[in-house]
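Hi team,

Filling in the usual template for the complex we talked about on Friday. All components are listed, including any nucleic acid strands or ligand strings, so the model treats them as one assembly.

SUBMITTER: L.P.
PURPOSE: interface mapping
COMPONENTS: two
RESIDUES: 699
SEQUENCES:
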Amino acid sequence: MTATAETAVAAPPAGHAKGGPSLAGWLVRGVLLLPLVYFFLSVIPGSADLTERGTEWVVFALVGISLNIIIGYTGQLSLGHQGFVGVGAFAAAYSLTVHQVPFALSIILAIVVGGLFAMLIGFAALRITGLYLSLITLVFGITLEQSLFQQPDLTNGGAGQPAYKPDALIEPSRYYFFCLAILVVIVFIDWRLTSTKAGRALFALRENERVAAAFGINVTAYKLLAFVMSGAIAGLAGALFAFKSEQVTGEDYDFFLALTFVLMVVVGGLNSRFGVLVGAFLFSRIGLDYAIERFHWIHELLVEGFLFVPGFGEERIQFAPRLIGAFLLLLTLLQFPGGIAQQLRPFTRWFAGGPFSFKHDVDGGPGTVEGSSVRA
Amino acid sequence: MSVLEVRDLSIRFGGLQALEGFNLDVNEWEIVGLIGPNGAGKTTAFNCITGFYKPDTGTVRYRGADVTRVPPHRKAAMGFGRTFQNVGMVKSATAIENLKTAQHAKIEYDTASGLIGAGPTWREEKQLEGRADAILDLLGLNAIRDSKVGGLSYGTLKLLELGCALATDPDILLLDEPSSGMGPEESEELGDRLLALRQEFGLTMLLIEHHVPLVLRVCDHVYVLNFGRLLAEGKPSVIQTHPEVVAAYLGGEAPEALEATQETEEDAALDAMTHAAVEHHAEVAPPARKRAAPRKAPAKKAAPRKKAAAASQEPAEPAEDAE
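RESULT (copied from the run log):
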């Protein structure tokens, strides 16, 4: 421990070279980023199949950011996030179709309802933490799925509540851009969250509520804020998902979806916006699923060849992504706690204007949750 | 008017009466020490004063206002800066981030405008960083600016924690064993620092401390707790020869203590106290230093006490925040 401290003291922080890269340096970075921009702004909207998958990625990314607020920033585990997404989807579809509210208002309602439901969990989180809170979120999600999401009023008698997009967004690529714009706004808000007082407050109370209180942080209010924000963003994601599929059924929001959400956030990289976006990409149907469908040999190799599971037809093609997902989770938990974001850190750091090196930064990397020994 | 006035404070944890009828006064510009053997209830008293515990009975008044039931985060905003016995900081964050976090209550923009990235928030974030850097300068901790707190040595941590308490812009500073983990020289330096901080920021302090030379050097007044009760109070020079205090530290009864008054400052008692202190802190300081310190302390003590009295008549000039 002291050794790391001394090296940190001895070496002036290299990442803080004043001024950063030159104009040319920024230009090079910009040019290198162009393919990525081209992919998201041109390739995806160019193909109907990819647009559909790309929109799902945006929704997953929103859920990922929402979930990261709870898992990453407050250090609690939510296993019921499909519930928040689901109530958002139903709120939007129900208010739009049954009560004929305008499109924008239906989305706002989804945000509000998502936030309110999450506030309930937030109140529980004030008293309960850790495993038991995870259990509560798990039960919460499954209960919603089994009760509220089965209400005939909401589900249009079980057939699914229609949620039609307004005419201006009927074009799938337009809807993709609409969702992408919302994602950009939410990423901005998340960025400001982590770089202003609210984010610092959350990090402080994640580690030690007493210390946070001694710093003047209202522990109750910020815990609730974290849950409400998370629920509101999940509700928003739900609304966007509802309008994407134009049909909301309870079965869409099952427990497996919650697991996928947790998986993508953890594998992508906790506490890292970038990691969450990558994780969402991987675990939405534009990532692993698409790769396996495009490159069928992966499926053959993994499922039929490697595991000797014969007779898995086209309909069971989802098996391979799940297998890979589980493997990635194990790998993350055992070897790379920072997830994909940690592995890509040399590149992301360089693109952000820092120096390029493969060395792990001792300081300034994604914050890890450490136990605290303060007894007060 | 005293800055902090604690009256008849009692708190019970199950079968343990952690504090009983505890009274304490801290006047403007004073440095008051709270000492006592382990388990005497010192930290419990701190927790009651700062709002972490709700006392069963009694009141805590801050500049005349009853703040007994005020929650800790609001007390921090009112001007209670505190440190913890085992270092209270965000360990996975860097030093500079901790100092920014500590300024939470002083931030003027609200949470929502922070989230939408409103103009003033960017400016104020810059100011926060400036203030944090100023505190690092003040404590000579610039080298660890971007180091994670979790990897620092204990003495550095205690110093940085003091910096975090300062960053909350306190009016009264409550320090829980500020010199723990420090060697004799470092703790002497800490004494200088505390006196300088009082001078510079017009601070009032209450400190729990085991290191006797430090207490003798900086404290204007000392309270001694034992088994949750106030055993004695007075000037440090008087306290160190107080027979009951000596007995409490040594353990057992002090028969002559019962009739002994504060005037009976006999060499035997002084020696006993010194020996007690030496035994208690054998790991912290060599005995020679211990013996020397108490003798020269009383002369030094008189001055700050008078200064404090003067300060309470004419209000201390409001010390500006390190900008």
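MY TAKE: Confidence is low (pLDDT under 50) at residues 1-17, 362-376 of chain A. Chain A touches chain B through 46 residues (CB under 8 Å).

Thanks, L.
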